[in-house]
Amino acid sequence: MTKIEEIKSEKEGPKKRFFEVSKKTSSFLGCTLGIYLVVELFKELGQYLGLARVSRGPIIYGISRITQSGVGDVLISLVIAGSIIIMYEALRRALSKDNSLLKYIVLAMMTLIVCDFLVGLVPDFNGSNYQNYMQPSRLDTFSERFKTVGTSVEGLLEMVLAIGLMIKYRGKILIYGGAVLVCHFLSGLLSAVFMNLYSVDPLAYIPKGYAKIAIISNYILMVLPMVFLKLTMKHQVVHESEKDGDLKNE
């Protein structure tokens, strides 16, 4: 290492391993993450159960009715989108304190999440009419295309963010970036496997065991990045002895 590189590294200091937040913020993010995990699981269970009958029990029937109803679906989507935005806002503020350009990527992701939720509120005008289904309205076409493009762009931005975090930071922040990339890869691989199963025979019966594996895997891959994101936010406790030591050193 040359003298110039040594001076530069001394000025930059060691790469940050976590984002320091207040105790109140850390607790709030923990509660937000807990709500997100529960509601996301509730949503996945509803998709797996579909329209369940009363004979399957009050709990299963209740989950099915809530998740399959229009109001229930909107509320679940609102809680999930709100939880993710709160977590990303904490990340954006942390990156802003470091004067990192990655904060703009987080801001773009948050904007896409809000837009995707608002577009999801657009009612389905196709109905059950076959002709309307084959010839959807312009609003329905725009809604579907926006969701597809928005999801792809958001995924791309998230991967760019992950790579940027892995380059600039270390420790738990680097692990979060790696988790995002791994989860994206495994999610794409899982989707490709199930698409291949359906493409061979669209009418083929998929065993319930495979469906359960898909639901569990999808849930894990969805929530893991948020769990690792929370772990990057750390409340550092400073003991009185350490404070005295710092004052003496000053």
Task: Please tell me about this protein's structure.
This protein has helices spanning 3-12, 23-49, 58-68, 70-97, 102-120, 130-134, 138-168, 171-200, 208-232, 240-249; strands at residues 19-20, 233-234. It has 250 residues and is mostly helical. Helix 5 (102-120) runs antiparallel to helix 7 (138-168) and helix 8 (171-200) packs antiparallel against helix 9 (208-232). The radius of gyration is 23 Å and the shape is globular. 16% of the residues are buried.
Summarize it.
The protein has 250 residues and is mainly alpha-helical. 78% of the residues lie in helices and 2% in strands. Helix 2 runs antiparallel to helix 4, helix 3 crosses helix 4 (70-97) and helix 5 (102-120) runs antiparallel to helix 7 (138-168).
Features:
single chain, 250 residues, mainly alpha, two-stranded parallel sheet, 78% helix, disordered C terminus
Q: What does the secondary structure layout of this molecule look like, with pairings?
A:
Elements lengths: L2 H10 L6 E2 L2 H27 L8 H11 L1 H28 L4 H19 L9 H5 L3 H31 L2 H30 L7 H25 E2 L5 H10 L1
Parallel strand pairs: 1-2
Helix pairs in contact: 2-3, 2-4, 2-9, 3-4, 4-5, 5-7, 7-8, 8-9
Overall, the morphology is: globular
Backbone structural class: mainly alpha
User: Radius of gyration over alpha carbons?
Assistant: 23 Å
The poorly predicted ranges are: 3-13, 125-133, 238-250
Assembly category: single chain
Q: Mean pLDDT, rounded to whole units? A: 78
Note the gap between the termini: 31 Å
In the sheet with the most strands, the strands line up as: 1-2
SSE pattern: HEHHHHHHHHEH
